[in-house]
Design a protein that fits this description.
404 residues; Preprotein translocase SecY subunit; two-stranded antiparallel sheet; 15 helices; globular; SecY_dom_sf; SecY/SEC61-alpha; transmembrane helix; membrane
């Protein structure tokens, strides 16, 4: 009964916090003209909004969503992998301050980028006597404040709700999935029933394969000292899809950053701009290859962040455990890195294939190009639902554990 009350209480908190965030995403920042319809239906913006849990198709109070928080979390996790005494000796309070500062920095940066995008739509006549720079700063401050508010809300959900930070991505993910299939580069696509039937079959096969691969893991057996071998069943699990959904969440963002340079009029119609346009566009072969390289590189990077061979080798050495025929310490770390690299290479190759094949075919058939972002969204949905399921199972399983 106690566990039932706990899960109901946590779900209640999560629903309340979700409602607050969704309401904030609907409140538009004043002073902007009507957003063109093609902007609200833009496929790339929809996918970016999905991965951040924000609303990048128009400036609202919470447009940036979880973007700055997620970026700061990844950067801090990468920094914390550096095994220095200064980082290891930081208190939880100090770590929290650093993560907040990083979130603020990225919120300002992403707020500036969003403002640059929508600057042509600012109606300066609504603010007589106020300079453009002042309006620019106020809008950035509103967007930054909204991002910090979402960061605070997500921490509350991690403590009192379920689903942690990923929960706030779920509503946008579910709402944008159908729209991604009909939003083309040239406008809304008209699809027939046979297309949806084929899509249903492909989606079902994709979900089955992805769930199988996501639950697949390589196990490195561990020898525990002082424990009889017949009771020794310990191992280090390494998932085949080690990076999870993180590559999908960040690949489009990283891919879009160079395009911000094209906003500068001094670089328009130059050799530099033509190279950028070719290398960072989903409408060229070179651009698709660049996107694949970014996706694969992020996948490998997140694999090492999620597994952390150095920490595993260090903990094994401190506990006296070891991998059979592998010397503890540096040799163990090297062995784990080798296994991780091979496994991550296979898993990330799968992510790249399901993303790039539709984009290449989409160069000739526009409808197919959308499947690259559709598959990425479905993959994120699988990961988030799996996380929610595991957390709920853990809460219910606590009733089976007794001290005496």
């Amino acid at each position: 009964m106690k566990n039932n009350k706990e899960i109901v209480k946590r779900i209640g908190w999560s629903i309340l916090l979700l409602a607050v965030v969704e309401f904030g995403k609907k409140i538009e920042v004043p002073g902007f003209l009507a957003i063109p319809k093609e902007e609200t239906q833009n496929l790339i913006l929809r996918f970016l909004s999905t991965t951040t849990g924000g609303n990048l198709s128009k400036p609202t109070l919470l447009s940036l969503g979880m973007g700055p928080y997620m970026t700061a979390l990844i950067i801090w996790t990468t920094i914390s992998m550096i095994d220095t005494d200064r980082i290891n000796n930081l208190s939880n309070k100090q770590r929290g301050y650093i993560q907040r500062v990083l979130t603020l920095i990225f919120a300002i940066a992403q707020g500036i980028a969003l403002m640059l995008k929508f600057e042509p739509l600012v109606d300066f006549k609504q603010f007589p006597g106020i300079s453009k720079f002042a309006i620019f700063c106020v809008v950035i401050m509103i967007l930054t404040t909204g991002a910090m508010f979402v960061s605070w809300i997500s921490d509350i959900n991690s403590e009192k709700g379920i689903g942690s930070q990923s929960l706030f991505i779920l509503p946008g993910l579910l709402s944008n999935l159908p729209a991604m299939l009909i939003s083309g580069q040239s406008g809304t696509l008209r699809l027939n029933s046979s297309y949806f039937l084929g899509l249903f079959v492909i989606t079902f096969v994709y979900i089955v394969i992805t769930i199988f691969l996501y639950n697949s893991e390589y196990r490195i057996n561990i020898q525990r000292t002082g424990i009889d071998s017949k009771f020794n069943n310990s191992y280090i699990p390494i998932r085949l899809l080690t990076a999870g959904a993180m590559p999908f969440m960040f690949a489009v963002t990283v891919f879009s950053i160079p395009q911000l340079l094209l906003l500068n009029e001094r670089w328009s119609n130059t050799l530099f701009s033509s190279i950028l346009s070719k290398l960072f566009s989903f409408n060229t072969v070179e651009g698709i290859i660049t996107y694949g390289v970014i996706l694969y590189a992020l996948g490998m990077g997140f694999s090492y962040i999620n597994v952390r061979p150095h920490d595993i080798a260090k903990h094994l050495k401190e506990s006296g455990d070891y991998i059979y025929e592998i010397v503890p310490g540096a040799e163990t770390e090297k062995y784990i890195k080798k296994k991780l690299s091979t496994i991550a290479m296979v898993g990330n190759s799968y992510l790249v294939l399901v993303s790039l094949i539709p984009l290449f075919i989409g160069l000739k058939v526009e409808i197919i190009a959308n499947l690259a972002f559709y598959f990425g969204s479905v993959f994120m949905l699988i990961i988030i639902l799996d996380t929610l399921t595991q957390e709920i199972k853990f809460i219910f399983s606590k009733r089976n554990y007794h001290i005496f």
